[in-house]
Amino acid sequence: MRDRTEWEPRGCDRRLSNPFLLSPSQPPMRPIASNNRRGRDRRSNGYISEQKLFHQIPYHLLESELSSLPQKQFSDGEVLIRRGQRNRYLYLLIDGCLKIHLDDSQEDEGILLEPGECVGEMSVIDRGPASATVICDGSATVIQIDASRFWNSFGKSRHIARNMLRILTTRMRTHNEMILAAREQKLLCDHLQSELAHAADLQRNMLPDLSQMAVQDFGLELAGLMKPAAKVGGDLYDAFFMEDNHLCLAMGSVSGKGMPAALFMVQVMSMLRGQMQRPGDIAKRMGILNNLVCQSNKSGMQVSLFVAVIDLQERGFDYCLAGHQPPAVSRNGHAFHFLDAEASPRLGGCEDVDFTIGLGRLEPGDRFFIFTEGAINRQNGNQEPFGETELLYQLDALPRANAAGKSLEEIDHALTLHAAGAQQCEDIAMMAVQALDY
Fold first, then answer.
1. What tens digit of pLDDT does each residue of 43-80 get?
2. ∠230-232-234 over CA atoms, to 5°?
3. Which residue stretches does the UniProt record annotate as biased composition, category Basic and acidic residues (predicted)?
4. Please, is 369 exposed, middle or buried when counting C-beta atoms within 10 Å of its C-beta (0-12, 13-18, 19+)?
5. At a CB cut-off of 8 Å and minimum separation 6, what does 223 contact?
6. Which residue spans within 125-169 are E strands per DSSP?
7. Is 63 helix (H, G, I), strand (E, B) or coil?
8. Who contacts 326 (Cβ-Cβ below 8 Å, separation ≥6)?
9. pTM of the prediction?
10. Residue 45: its pLDDT value, please?
11. Which CATH code of 3.40.50.720, 2.70.70.10, 3.40.50.360, 3.60.40.10 fits the domain covering 207-435?
């Protein structure tokens, strides 16, 4: 056991053995009155040790200079730096969060800055316009350093220069990763857009060219138009010949839009063609079709469908409204009105339901306008729908001498004028049927 005289100093005595803390030539330490303190309380400068810019810089070299710099408060969404504008400040984030946006629209994900990070260093270095926009995310407290003062007070420190270079390098890597991710996303989007364009072409090619169907020999004229809300849609029309000079007209709308609705509608129309070629009345064939749709409908979609089978020789027709909007009808030049018919349920809801069949006859001069709800639901910027009343008014205004295709063009033009540039939210399909005068 050592003699007490050999013990090392303890507690306050140990400080006397460190010449870097207190030299013999220094006068004795005396307490400093609180009213003689200068700058901020040292506890308020605790952020200094967290700043990446000042990593491994002795605290006492920074405290006096940073204590005199202003702290600024920013609220959510407030802009500190705007892209393209000159900025002369370096901001040290001491509380809250900031976000860097490379895009003027601020629709990019942005780079999140947390306490201990800085922003504005590129402007301080080159004094050029800012390359990004910096906004407050929530609320934030920063230390604002003027560029000139930064260079005068800290610019000669190699440690600070190295730390700033490290910060810039890290941020550039993050930017590069974001650019690469955005490029990959764009390539993926371009690929999807290309596939959607091909799908839209395929869907258009599936639609029959009604104007080329050989029905004029039977005194009929047909035209069709389809306008999806997206590139592809869930509204379709079809027309095809059956045995014994019969013609089937069909128009359907899936409860949805886009690719899933389009694929489901194609499936329904394919099954419709198959069923309409089988023997039996329309009610029976619609019942079988509905059961098939229910059995293949895993997504829960439903389909409204109008089907009419016309006897081209006798001009009589049977029709079914399966949850579909009734067609507008004009008899021999008289005013248009909606076909008074009993509605049946939509396809795909539940199996083994009964379908009601209506009977009609086409006389010379009769005109039929078959459409999906997207036409009357077409809205303008004030969210006002086109409506049934306006549709009947526009149909009555059509010249009787119009060809079927011309009539569709004018109704489509009326819808466009009503929308006045508002986005189309629902698919639209329309079909015109005219019985020619003899």
1. 456 677 788 888 888 877 787 788 888 889 999 999 99
2. 100
3. 1-16
4. buried
5. 210, 211, 403, 404, 405, 407, 408, 431, 432
6. 133-146
7. helix
8. 338, 339, 340, 341, 343
9. 0.61
10. 60
11. 3.60.40.10
Question: Residue 205 region, left (φ>0) first, then alpha (ψ -120 to 50), else beta?
Answer: alpha
**Counting Cβ atoms within 10 Å, is residue 216 exposed (0-12), middle (13-18) or buried (19+)?**
exposed
- Position 21 scores a pLDDT of 36
Contact status, residue 347 vs residue 295, Cβ threshold 8 Å: no
> Cα 109 to chain center, whole Å?
14
Low-confidence ranges of the chain (pLDDT < 50): 1-2, 4-40, 42-43
CATH 2.60.120.10 fits 40-179, yes or no: yes
Contact 226, 237 (CB under 8 A): yes
What is the structure's pLDDT at 34?
A: 39
CA distance 344 to 337: 20
Strands annotated E in 178-234: 220-227
Encoding tokens for residue 402? 């119009």
Nearest to 338 by CA among 374, 386, 371, 304: 371
Calpha distance 221→51 (Å, rounded): 79
The predicted pLDDT at position 179 comes to 77
Nearest Cα to Cα of residue 61 among 159, 170, 142, 177: 159
Answer yes or no: are the C-beta atoms of 281 and 272 closer than 8 Å: no
